[in-house]
Write the structure tokens for this entry.
Amino acid sequence: MLIALGVVAIIAVYVIFVYNGLVRARQMAEEAWSGIDVQLKRRADLIPNLIETVKGYAAHEKGTFEEVVKLRNQAQAVPTGDVAGRAQAEGLLSQALGKLFALAEAYPDLKANQNFAELQASLETLESEIQMSRRYYNGAARDLNIKVESFPSNLLAGPFGFSKRDYFEITNEADRAVPSVKF
């Protein structure tokens, strides 16, 4: 009888240990996704200021401005938990921003504008932070996915409602390029 109680106690401790590991991994993935979301929100907030600055110099380039604003709004409309959808929308937005910066190349006065230079530097910094956040999220998602799929933790993951997380990936090679502007 004592041996049976000991085995039950060991199994209970093991279940608690595995469950807590799964909870920790899920929380890390959620916290990592929150970090990406914060950076993407900062970028979305910066875009209107950038557009307004460029508009003053290139008012006749209305189509480019409208495209950036449309894609920004689409990216913000993607539900928070839709990692794949958000990655696709943000990739399209990055392409449109690249066009905006390419447009700025044609206007030397704009490139010399202090406000534009500051906005561009802020956007470059944000792009780097977004890249770091993506790597952190993907690492946290990988850790959770390993726990969800690995034996014996997979025996507990399903019944307790733990599931794999999508990676924040960019599928279009053109979307991978960060817009660059040369002065």
Remarks:
- The chain has one domain: 2-176.
- Residues 120 and 183 are 11 Å apart (CA to CA).
- The helical segments are 2-55, 62-77, 83-105, 108-112, 114-149, 153-157, 173-176.
